[in-house]
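Internal QA ticket QA-208
Title: Verify multi-chain structure generation after dependency bump
Assignee: T.L.

Test input:
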Amino acid sequence: MLAKAKGSARFDITDGRRTERWRVTIDKGNLGVSRRNVAADCILRVERSSFERAIAGKLNLMAAVLRGEVGIGGDERLIVLLRRLFLKPARRRRSQPARKKP
Amino acid sequence: MSDGSVKILDGNTFVVSDTRGDIEASLTDPTGLFSYDTRFLSKWVLTINGERMNPLSVDDLEYFESRFFLVPGTGTVYVDAKLSVIRRRAVGNGFHEELTILNHADEPVDLRIRLDAGCDFADLFEVKDALKKKGTYSARAKGGKLVLAYVRGTFGRSTVISSSQPARIDKNGLGFKIRIGPHGKWSTDLDVATGALGFEEMGRTEDPAKARRRMRQNLARWIDQAPRLESDQEPLRATYRRSLVDLAALRFSPQVAGGRSLPAAGLPWFMTMFGRDSILTSLQALPFTSELAATTLRALGDWQGLSVNDFRDEDPGRILHEMRYGELTAFEERPHSPYYGSADATPLFVVLLDEYERWTGDRALVRELEVESRAALNWIDEYADLQGNGYLSYERRNKKTGLENQCWKDSWDSISFRDGRIPGFPRATCELQGYAYDAKRRGARLAREIWKDTALAEQLEQEAAELKRRFNRDFWVEDGEYFALALDPEGKQVDALTSNNGHLLWSGIVDKSKAKAVVRHLLGPRLFSGWGVRTLAEGEGRFNPIGYHVGTVWPFDNSFIAWGLRRYGFKDEAAIVAAGILDAAEFFEGRLPEAFGGYERSQTRYPVQYPTACSPQAWSTGAPLLLLRTMLGLEPQGEHLVVDAALPSTIGHLELLDIPGRWGRIDAFGRGRVDVEARRR
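Actual output:
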């Protein structure tokens, strides 16, 4: 799902006065994670509690950005593609099992 | 403009004011400065010595700029013009206003100038539905600026107003006490800037003069790169130019597009990203510009549905319906972050990708979007066949704020039986089956030629053939000889006669043997008004010539019907439809509204605009472009562009020069020969 994304994203995760910085690099489907405080193509600033909801697939990124719960900067297209990292486990299919088509 | 309001816009920001340049919005009134679906200014009223202005004229310089010529005093019979007032306004990050006052008298004048300012920070949805706010407001003077703000938890929006001349600022506005000498002039630059917490995109500022220059150059380039149209018909040339300019105005750069643009739906309600509207407008515009299609495909692909979410009516592979940026979306009181409740955008996504490649030869984009296209094709059978009967149907899972009708005719009463009864859900409307068929056929071509997946190509072709066979059996209304509007949950035909038949021709799902009967209906007295094909046929239970989807004529609808007529070889009939719509455009100064009344042409003589239609609206703006394509019979074939013109006799000659595509640039010519007067009854 991230096959065409290339770049790096930094997550600034705040918890009280502490900020942890995680840098994720994406290179055509390969993910790398480090804890270095370096520049990245895009930055997401988020509180730990919100981040945990995101990991569990319970946070809609777009709405969270709009209400200021997640701050963003940098390459916006990459941020949109990052949604694909925060997926809820797949649920049932929507369509009914196919009846025999006449 | 016809409704007495003046609109200027740039991308997702627009200002709607009265002809004095004033804004006095109520909660339900759509005037103000809007950006990203939020109203950032709801009051902006100019007075001089306590008096309101009287408008002399408005000059809409460009779509992003206007100039108001005013005199003080509310207009009675005679206006004593010792003072002239000019407000020159341009949209930027918010807007910029140059206020100039000229004293024409031989004596100096002392003036109290006042600009009352205020903001309700309404979400566009609130303006539409008149809802109450949950956050807190503030207004304060700070550092020589007036700061209006609205805060609700982490959500914050602000408007900052400043002036180049020193002003007395209070929380209700700005005041100036000035003296202008004999035949003198005074002027100030007012800046109204929008801001948002945590959302950097909205906070960007650009020098106003630079922004204006950028926008002007951008528009000039846009016009310059489009094909040139030559014709003996001046109204046609005017309509073409209007369409190009309006399409430029309706371009919108969403967060994901990296500065490239795609068409937004329309002003003022739909200045945002829409799946269906953006795709159909991009299709209409393909012979003129392929940029819109490329950006639309990328942006919609990026936002493609990932998981099953009932609130957003989202499924994996589904293409979004609508994206919004306001407060209600932010707090998930509305599902538009984004909302996926559209049943046609997903197959149409594949249709657009294929048509785009046929015009441009851009195989790289087809490869780039392979994953998304496969997911879209998969959605049709895995998620959209709600009844397991092999037909694409819809039923919203968000019962509170989701959309009931997820096809283009999305008003509550648009889908009905002949006798006016409304069917239950799920509904399988006919055009959806056509789009699905076309998506499978086109997807098969992409799979075979570009993704090099023969197995998928064969599977899709087989499914398409099977769908076509069943469709022509199950949807065909025997006693009427046309296709039913839909199948209801029991599989019964929803048997009203509608314009949807034309979309079926466009998709190619109609058996050749049935096409003639369908065309007879489309051009027959019940559907064809003389201006165009009505959404619902006269004589049906719910027919109403000014009913939104139950009798009006939609220019966009007709442009696709004309394309469908061409596809089945009915050139003359396509020319008749094109002539009717283009004639109507003349009455709207080249700017076709979303819809107009379905009255007989012979009865009204002019097309009656639908009361609250959006204008300009993207797919109405695109309609003349697609009609030009169909009249000229432009069709890419391999590396070539085939031209096979069939023009109405109302056009003497028509040339479209420098049509861009995989062939480089090609010219197309045609002469009018189809006698439309005779066929119009």
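Spot checks passed. Residues 199-204 of chain B have pLDDT under 50 and may be disordered.
Status: verified.
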